[in-house]
Amino acid sequence: MLMMLSAVSAILISWEKDAWVLGHWLAMLPVVGVIGGIVGIQHAFTFAYVCLWMAFGHFVIRGIQGMKAAN
What we know:
Elements: H1 2-17, H2 22-38, H3 44-70
């Protein structure tokens, strides 16, 4: 459910702001991996897991960059 919330919010924010950035794609891709895993595609769940960690890392890095830019 959290991945679905993340993907839907990323799509809505991207659509509203017309800003299709890397973090938004990384938030949407795990849902694709889970759907692929459910239909039986090999390694799809691993793909989703890796994308989740990449998205987490990306947002942490962007947060640090934002804090440094504010100072």
